[in-house]
């Protein structure tokens, strides 16, 4: 017999052996396997009724895109107050689509959608952008409760049509205004040359505690540049630095133009180099500013840098470079740039470019070359062209060419007293006193009373 167990627990029974696994069935060949029945495809999800017009809006580069959109609206899905403004926005992209806009207006009247403010606002904006402020006004007057967007669209239409007075009238009768309202009228005043009024509106806007948008800031910077209000421009610059972490290209161009026109060319260069983004207008503001203040060599330097960075120059760029070459006496460089304008850069020569070349050649004493250039022009010379030649004749005492230039200038403007004075001075330098008396007598007969000149300065008080 087995001895008794000394374990603290009774012995366990041994585990039974695992059952034997059945042999696997042989795998049938692929051709013998039964095919599973595929589920039928789910039906396509029905498109929202407004999906086709919305998708088509992304393809509006095609000239017939809006017409296709109108076809979809008419044939497939009736327009709604949500889809119709999209179609109106598409039609307002080009004046070519104005007949389409009229058709959409008729659709809105038929479907009784004009009582909705955002639908009516779309038509007010459409007519304003296409230079039809009276039509925009009729839509505005039919609105039951026009909102601030309605007033902004109407004022923008008036300003685009040159009716600043009516825009200001609507601005003053608005129940409430936003930043767009102020920016619209400030830009409108700047557009027509009412720079003091624009700056006053900007100060009034800031006084009411409303932050200006980029349109208002760009417009008031332009006004400060034209007025020479450097301190006010610095105030706007400080506000831009505090409120804009990355100013857009329009603000950057406005700041460069401000300092360049006010003679702070070093600051203009610093602001230009600081600008996060630049376009051709930014380059033009700096190049023209440098040229006007006698920094012709630096202007040419920035012109070459502009070409290296791949920015394509335009007519204003060449005008600034030619002015800079004229003030710096860079005759050969100006000739080369002037000759390459059309062939290399594809920029047509205008009368202002010929005027710069005439002034440059006249300053250099190349009067005969300037006269030959004018003879080869496809159009007749204007006051800038002949004025540049006359100024060169005054510097170098060329009486014969001065008489020709003065005759052309007086044909353009017989009451220009400056031409008589310059011609009399040229005769006096040549000792032809009889001609001096004749010119002065002729000036008194044709002009009579002369306008009194005036100047203005700004002090630091």
From TrEMBL:
PPR repeat windows: 147-177, 178-212, 279-313
One Pfam family, short name: E_motif
Stretch list, region Disordered: 1-50
Keyword set, alphabetical order: Repeat, Transit peptide
Top-rank lineage group of the source organism: Eukaryota
Biased composition (Pro residues): 1-31, 41-50
Molecular function via GO: RNA binding
The keyword Ribonucleoprotein belongs to this UniProt entry's keyword annotation: no
Name under which the protein is recorded: Pentacotripeptide-repeat region of PRORP domain-containing protein
Organism whose genome encodes this protein: Aegilops tauschii subsp. strangulata (Goatgrass)
């Amino acid at each position: 017999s087995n001895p008794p167990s000394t374990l603290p627990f009774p012995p366990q029974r041994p585990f039974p052996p695992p059952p034997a696994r059945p042999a696997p069935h042989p795998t049938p060949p692929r051709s013998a396997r039964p095919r599973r029945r595929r589920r039928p495809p789910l039906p396509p999800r029905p498109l929202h009724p407004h999906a086709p017009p919305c998708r088509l809006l992304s393809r509006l580069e095609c000239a017939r895109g809006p017409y296709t959109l109108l076809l979809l609206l008419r044939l497939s899905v009736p327009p709604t107050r949500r889809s119709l403004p999209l179609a109106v926005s598409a039609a307002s992209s080009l004046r070519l689509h104005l007949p389409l806009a009229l058709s959409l207006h008729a659709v809105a009247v038929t479907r009784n959608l004009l009582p909705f403010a955002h639908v009516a606002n779309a038509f007010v904006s459409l007519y304003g952008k296409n230079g039809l402020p009276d039509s925009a006004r009729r839509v505005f007057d039919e609105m039951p409760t026009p909102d601030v967007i309605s007033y902004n669209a109407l004022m923008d239409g008036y300003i685009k049509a040159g009716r600043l007075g009516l825009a200001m009238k609507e601005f003053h009768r608005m129940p409430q205004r936003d930043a767009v309202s102020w920016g619209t009228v400030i830009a409108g005043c700047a557009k027509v040359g009412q720079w003091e009024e624009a700056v006053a509106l900007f100060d009034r806007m800031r006084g009411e505690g409303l932050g200006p948008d980029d349109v208002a800031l760009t417009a008031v910077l332009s006004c400060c540049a034209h007025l020479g209000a450097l301190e006010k421009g610095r105030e706007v610059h400080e506000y831009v630095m505090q409120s804009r972490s990355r100013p857009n290209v329009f603000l950057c161009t406005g700041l460069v133009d401000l300092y360049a026109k006010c003679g702070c060319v070093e600051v203009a260069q610093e602001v230009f180099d600081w600008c996060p983004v630049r376009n051709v207008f930014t380059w033009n503001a700096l190049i023209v500013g440098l040229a006007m203040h006698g920094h012709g060599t630096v202007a040419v330097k920035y012109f070459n840098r502009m070409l290296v960075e791949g920015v394509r120059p335009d007519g204003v760029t060449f005008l600034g470079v030619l002015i800079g070459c004229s003030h710096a006496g860079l005759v050969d460089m100006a000739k080369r740039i002037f000759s390459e304008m059309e062939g290399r850069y594809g920029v047509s020569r205008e009368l202002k470019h010929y005027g710069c070349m005439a002034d440059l050649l006249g300053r250099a004493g190349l009067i005969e070359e300037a006269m030959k250039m004018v003879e080869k022009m496809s159009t007749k010379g204007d006051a800038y062209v002949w004025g540049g030649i006359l100024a060169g004749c005054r510097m170098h005492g060329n009486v014969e060419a001065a008489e020709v230039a003065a005759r052309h200038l007086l044909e353009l403007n017989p009451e220009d007293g400056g031409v008589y004075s310059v011609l009399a001075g040229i005769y006096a330098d040549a000792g032809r006193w009889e001609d001096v008396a004749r010119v002065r007598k002729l000036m008194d007969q044709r002009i009579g009373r002369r306008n009194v000149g005036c100047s203005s300065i700004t002090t630091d008080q």
